[in-house]
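README: folding subset

This subset contains proteins for which both the sequence and a predicted structure token string are available. Records are stored as plain text. Below is the entry for Sugar ABC transporter substrate-binding protein (429 residues), shown exactly as it appears on disk.
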Amino acid sequence: MRISRRAFAAAAVAVLLPLSACGSGGDGGGSSDASGKVEGDITFQTWNLRANFKPYFEGLIAEFEKKYPGTEVKWVDQPAEGYADKISADAAGGTLPDVVNVSPDLVAPLAKAGLALDLDKAAPQYKKEYLPGAWAGHRIPGMTGTYAFPWYLNTGPLFYNKTLFKEAGLDPEKPPKTYDDLFADALTMAGKSGGKVATLANVPTIEDFGRYGVPLMNEEGTAFTFNDAKGVELLTKYKELYDAKALDPQALTATPESSGKKFLTGAVAMNPGSALDLGNFKKQAPSLYKNIGITDQITSTGHVNMYVMGVMVNSQSKRKPAAVAFAHFVTDAAHQMSFAKKVAIFPSTAGSLDDPYFTKEDGTDETRVRVAAAKSLKTAVNYTPVLFSEQMKIALRNEVAKALQGKQSPEEALDNAVKECDRLLQQQG
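--- output ---
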């Protein structure tokens, strides 16, 4: 029950990876002095954006340099493959660019190493310009401060196959709205199809536990807590679905791409996605597209999941005033809005989601998805803890798989996952 990060990034970036090194520790923000004249040469690094958005960024940079005579922005764009390792190597070698495109999991070790500028100290005047949930997206548990400007956001609906719902005797105009509805409908569909049609194609991830209302981590950021009674309850439900083939038997090894294909071919009835997927449905599966249902993410908290990208300022930059000014320029309301109209993402700036582009429907499904997503983003949260690394995701997935296969109880699985994730957390330094 998630949008893949690849779907979130789509043409812009690929799957987000964790930073492989933590650095040597520090005050979490370096020198916070960003006052002074905006001038000098700075380097701006993006993440797999040049191929699709070169004219946009070249125009953005020219506009900034015109606004601030005496500045020059060198733009470097790194490939998606190995991006985390590249940042890690630059951090260790003292060659980190002045302004860096990051995700929350990438900024966390940089902040701990004292390489990410604390904007709450250096640029507090800008906080009010952004959605509260987005500004909070680059805070680190156990630390004070905010370590990147929020840039673009994404979220998305659940798509469902109306034909499969109808064939199972379910009302195709009344998709599940609660977890109880979802689990009941999934068992019905599996039963009616003799186990041939699953409703879901993915095992629960950390964000699914968050959406279910499971507390994921303590406030100090020193230990994970998703093995509580509510977490066990969710995994127990998934075990029931797996046994009934209401959860796809191949879910244990599924990728977002493979589950997407299962949905396209009618092997599963529901799949998360974004407005970007509608074009694929139309092109690759016209019969599915004609019978596509669109409904809200299911959550017990009232808040959908938010994916957030950020723009970090290197706290060691020799041109800090220019770096802060440029990071703000990239992420201000006007430039976020213009970028959002080029790709199916959403601005993180306060008030931008009230623009008619995000509020007025024109009868198309694409607009319907965009309007619904924009509305939900106003109160969305990023459920994935910023300290939850790729290794931790693998550890959780492995233990969940054992529980679904009956090799251990859901309670044992989550206890083991928390134990391993806590061990990895301690290694982060």
